[in-house]
Amino acid sequence: MKKFFLKRSKQEQKLKHLTGLCNIPASEITLLLDLAADFKRELISGNPSFEQSLRNKRIALVFFENSTRTRFSFEIAARHLGAGTLNFSASSSSVSKGETLGDTIKNLEAMQVDGFVLRHPSSGAADLITGITSKTVINAGDGSHEHPTQALLDMFTLRDYFGKIEKLKVVIIGDVLHSRVARSNIYGLLATGADVGICCPVTLMPPDADRLGVTLFTDLDRAITWADSAIVLRLQLERATGGYLPSLEEYSVHYGLTDERLERTQKHLLVLHPGPINREIEISNHVADRIQPPGYSKSVLLEQVTNGVAIRMAVMQTLLAQQ
């Protein structure tokens, strides 16, 4: 079995939690991406073999929201490293009887778990439980705050394709106002030297957008002409009935990523999407499935899913194996 180690100097402080990428230094992000690259090479080798570095660890996957990619990705990553997992579902737990988040965490900690992977609909929930438990906390998405491992796998995908992140121009398209994926990507990409743009209707633009250090677009053609890569966000369909958008049809016309729009720019564009996809709304079927394009763009949506396992292995190895 192969051993994988984080190449950190003795002077560098170890991370205990990962609740977001805000204020995480570029050096720490680079270490995680480097370790994920080692894991990915082994994962796609056809016969992966890993040292069971977390074989005595138990990780609670505490998901208060539905998830497919993120939950399974963490579970597969944990098992590759030898960790046991406990799957928590709010609908079948004591939360349905009125138990608080804090009490849920304390009860799970009393069962001698070593770490928590938390997804929660409330912004700040992951940071909150770091003050409740002495165990490691990994944020798997909290409200409209952050989703750090999704951003890390997006950054890993970009670096894997372009060979670098520094000076890449990356535009994030869609509902930036409510997106935890957008927030984490903005923090992580800026920290590692990328130029970041956001493109969306003014109603979905964050009120602090002009202070984030990003380039602002409301015209999608201009945005993709500027960019090397686009991260397309899932449009939360309730936005059309919540007063943010006139209609889904109008959103799709002005902000949907289509073959026609991409070919009009005549520029190679790498297309990412965190999923799940609203096909023919924020992205067309052809663009979403364009793995080996004849023209000017390429989509790496499924490669992102593969990279998610490698990134989450790197995060858990970093936070839990060195405790």
Explain what the structure shows.
The structure is a single chain. The protein has two domains: 137 residues, Aspartate/ornithine carbamoyltransferase (Rossmann fold); 155 residues, 3-Layer(aba) Sandwich (Rossmann fold), CATH 3.40.50.1370. 37% of the residues lie in helices and 15% in strands. It contains eleven helices and ten strands. α6 links the parallel β5 and β6. The longest helix is centred in the last third of the chain and has 21 residues. The radius of gyration is 20 Å and the shape is globular.
CATH homolog superfamily of the largest domain:
Aspartate/ornithine carbamoyltransferase
Cα-based radius of gyration, to the nearest Å: 20 Å
Fraction of residues in helix: 25-40%
Number of domains: 2
Q: How many β-strand runs?
A: 10
Read across the widest sheet, the strand sequence of neighbours is 7-6-5-8-9-10
Number of helices: 11
Shape label: globular
